[in-house]
Amino acid sequence: MLFERVKPLEHIIESAERKGLKRQLGAFDLTMLGIGAIIGTGIFVLTSVAAEKAGPGMMFSFVLAGFVCALTALVYSEIAAIVPVAGSAYTYSYAVFGELTAWMVGWALILEYAVAAAAVAVGWSGYINGFLHEIGYGLPLVLTAGPYDTIVLRSGAGMGATSSGGFNLLAFLISLFVTVLLIIGTSKSARFTAVLVVVKIVALTAFIVLAVPAVSAANFDPLLPNGWGTPFSGVGILGAAASIFFAYIGFDAVSTAAEETVNPNRNVPIGLIGSLTICTLFYLVVAYAAVGAVGAQPGGELSQSREPLAYVLRAVGYPATGNWVASAAIIALPSVVLMMIYGQTRVLFTMSRDGLMPGVFSRVHERFHTPHVVTGVTGIAVALFAAMFPVGMLADISNSGTLFAFFTVAMGVMILRRRDPALHRPFKTPMIGIVGPMAAAGCVLLFFSLGWETIRLFLYWAAIGLFIYFGYARRHSLLRER
For residues 64 and 237, what is the distance between their CA atoms, to the nearest angstrom? Predict the structure, then answer.
C-alpha cells in the first residue's frame, strides 16, 4: 500500500520536542521575516514582466495572486497552529495524507525555496553588477552571468552581439554570505532581516509618494490589451498572475519557523496574516502608481525595464530617487535569499528527522542551535545554481512547486476538519467550507496558467522525486516498520 504510512499528529509533535530547535522568535520577528521573504524580486523586478503579459491590467493580476495567497494563508494558519513544528507543508501532508504525498510535497518545496533563492540571488547580482559598471568598477563579463545565461555585449562587439557567461561570481558570494548568517543563528538572522525590511518599506513608500501624483487616466487605456487570458496561454491577467505569484510566496516561510517560535499558536497566525496583508497593500498601490505614472502597455519601456520602479521615478523627474530605489533593492534583496534558504533548510531538517533524508541533515549545532549541516549543504547548492543559471530559468519553475504544496495544504485542512473535528485548533480558518475550496481552486488555476513548458519541467522533477523515494527514502523512513 502506498498511502498506509500516515504519521499521527502526536508523533510529529513528540519527535519535534525530542530533537527540536530553540524557541526564540516572537510575532514581530515572524512578521518581519515574512515581509523580508515576500517583498523582493517580485515587486522590484517582476512588475515589468507583469506589464508585458497583462498591460495596465496587471493590477488585477496582483489582486488575483494576492487573493489566492490570502486564502492559503488562512488555511496555513490553522494547520501551523495545530502542528507548530518545522517542515511547513511537508509536515502537514505527513499527518493527513501519509508519507508518499508528504515526500512529494517536500520534494516540490525544493523548487519553492532553493530554486527561488538562487533566482533572487541572480536578480540581485544583476542590480549590483549594473551599479558597479556605472561607477567604473564593473567585473569582467564572464563573471557577471552563468554559462547557461546570455550576455548582451556593449559597444565594441557590434550592436546586439551576445555571448555566454562563465560564472556569476556575485550571485555565488551573496548566497554563501547568507548561509553563514543562518548558521550563526536564527535570532541574528531575524535582526538582520528586520533592518533590510525597513529599507525596503522606506524605498517603496518613497516610490508611492513620488509616483502617485504623476498618475494619469490616459495611461490606463487600453486597460486589458491581452484580455484575461486562458490556462496554458501564459499571457493576459491569468498569465501575469501566475508569474507574479512569485512575489507572494515568501509568506510560507513563516510557517517553517513554527518550531523556533515562542507561543506559536498565537504568533504564527499573526506572522502569516500580518506580513501578507502589509505586502499586498504595498503591491497594489505600487502597481497602481507605476501604471498610472508612465503606462504599462506590452512592448513599452516599463515592460522592457530590468529595474521598473527606478525607471518610473526617473521618467517622472526624480532620477536621483530612482537611483536610490535601485540601491535599496541591492541592499534589501539578500533578505529574500536568506528567508528562502531558511525555509529550505527547515523542510530538509524535518525530512531528515523522519528518516527520508540523510540523518546528518538533522544535526543541531551545540553553540548556535541551528541545523548547520543542512544549512551549509543547501547554501552551497543554492550558490552553485545561482552561479550557473539565469534568473528566468530558475524562477519559472519555482511557482509550480509552490502551488502544488499550497493545494495540498488546503485539501489537508479540509480533510482534517472532517476526520478529526474534535481536535484542538488554536486558530480556525473562518468559513472553511468556502475558503478551503477557493484556495485549492485558485492554486489549480494559477498552476495551469504557468504554461505547458513549466508544467512539463515540474512533471520531470516529480518523476525524479518518485525515483528517489522508492530507491532510498521509503527504505530508510522511521515509519517503515509501522
Answer: 9
Q: Where are the domains of the chain?
A: 9-476
- Per the CB < 8 A criterion, the answer to whether 386 and 175 are in contact is yes
Torsion sign over Cα 77, 83, 88, 91 = negative
> What nine digits make up the cell of 53?
503579459
Grid coordinates belonging to 81: 497552529
Residue-wise burial string across 283-297, b where 16 or more C-beta atoms lie within 10 A, e elsewhere: bebbbbbbbbbbbbb
| Separation of alpha carbons 225 and 223, rounded Å | 6
Distance, in Å, from the CA atom of 100 to the CA atom of 161, rounded to the nearest integer, reads: 49
Give the span between the Cα atoms of 252 and 229, in whole angstroms.
27
Q: Phi and psi dihedrals of 161, rounded to 5?
A: -65, 145
DSSP state of 13: H
The one-letter code for the residue type at 151 is I
Nearest to 475 by CA among 333, 378, 357: 357
β-strand partners of 288: none
Least Cα distance to 142 among 388, 395, 393, 384 occurs for: 388
DSSP state of 141: G
Confidence of residue 159 (pLDDT cuts 50, 70, 90): very low
pTM greater than 0.85: no
**Cell digits of residue 178:** 547568507
Question: Cα separation of 415 and 206, whole Å?
Answer: 45
As to burial, measured by CB atoms within 10 angstroms (0-12 exposed, 13-18 middle, 19+ buried), residue 204 is buried
| Record: fold of 9-476 | Amino acid/polyamine transporter I (1.20.1740)
Q: Which of 442, 370, 352, 406 lies closest to 79, judged by CA?
A: 406
Max Cα distance, the chain (Å): 72
How distant, in Å, are the alpha carbons of 290, 318, 324, 325, 432 from that of 314? 12, 5, 11, 10, 46
Distance of CA 426 to the CA centre of its chain: 26
Provide the CA 204 distance to its chain's centre, in angstroms: 19
Q: 137: Cβ–Cβ under 8 A, 6 or more apart, which residues?
A: none
> With contact defined as beta carbons under 8 Å apart, do 72 and 419 qualify?
no
Q: What is the pLDDT of residues 47-84, one digit of tens each?
A: 877 888 888 888 889 889 888 988 888 888 788 777 76
